Amino acid sequence: MKSLIKTTLIALLLVAASALAANAQDSRIQMSSLDHLAAKASQTVDVNIDERLMKMAVRLLSDKDEDERDVKKLVAGLKGIYVKSFEFETDGQFVVADLEPIRTQLRGAGWTRMVNVTSKKEGNLEVYLQFAGETVNGLAVLVTDDKELTVVNIVGPVDLDKLAQLEGQLGVPELGIESSKTKKKNEEQ
Amino acid sequence: MNDDYLWDKTGEPDPEVQKLEEILGTLRYQPAPLEIPEDLQLPRRRNYFPWLAIAASVLLAILIGGLWLSMRSRREPTPIEAKLTAPAPAKEVTPTSSVTPEHKLPELKPEPREEVVVVHKHRPRSSAPLLSKSEREEALMAKEQMMLALRLTTEKLSLVHKKTQNPANQIKNQHRVG
Description:
The complex is a heterodimer of chains A (189) and B (178). By secondary structure, chain A is an alpha+beta fold. In chain A, 36% of the residues lie in helices and 28% in strands. With 178 residues, chain B is mostly helical. Chain B has four helices and three strands; from the N terminus they run αααββαβ. In chain B, strands 1-2 form a two-stranded antiparallel ribbon. The longest helix of chain B is centred in the C-terminal third of the chain and has 33 residues. At the A-B interface, strand 1, helix 2, helix 3, strand 2 and strand 3 of A face helix 4 and strand 3 of B.
């Protein structure tokens, strides 16, 4: 009887631990289904930065440099950044089905498609956010063009205000991102 | 005479033996509980373990404290003062010949001594612990990758922003699908 209780408790603990682990990785999107496209691509960007590497990188960011200070603030609570980007020389190197495993994950609980821009000429753009209550717990961006396929996944609490502050920095033009809070403030003023 | 009585108490007893038996019988073993005298003091077995443990802890604390102090004193070098003193002016050369020069050289006046004091003070180290060479290389690579990823993300978001601003593009939906 005692051994039965013991076994049940261990099983329950294992289930709870795996559930917690699964919850922690919720906003991480598995992109390995796209790996086969690397052989066809003329240019591939593959960035995999987990929490450990993120912490190491943050330690090298300077507090004196304004840009780096802003980046430091932005990535402070993040658990990972994952990017897969492929550029092809010719059209039709990938099909919609290649993206299906990623879309399936993004259809899962917690993810919200915030933006979906479809253009026959310029391709499709999708922005997904994962919410944990009121806060954003993950970001995913899908960009597909005739000759390009990019998937960006940021795991962890993404502060859109801080991300908006990066506009014009890192050699990127102004984004014009306004969070709901700042938008309200601007409207009040 | 039969000696069986002496052997196994059978046969005819010898009166002399019987008498001896009676005399010595008082000293025969009689089972009784052990009586410990009240005034008897047993030696107490001392347990030195707690004292030894305390002594070892104190010694360990002293050792760690000493090591920490020595490391701290190594890290905080005493301020080094370097004094830079301007070179002394050249001595006036008195003419040895009797011939007086046509043009008198302007009298050299010693310039006021300029003292530059350089004080080297110990700067507090950054709170981040030092990275080993391999860790630093890994961190540098991670930093580059992170910046590249952020650049790409902001680029794509910029593109989204531009396209959403363009009325020609269709915004299919903005609702929850999860």
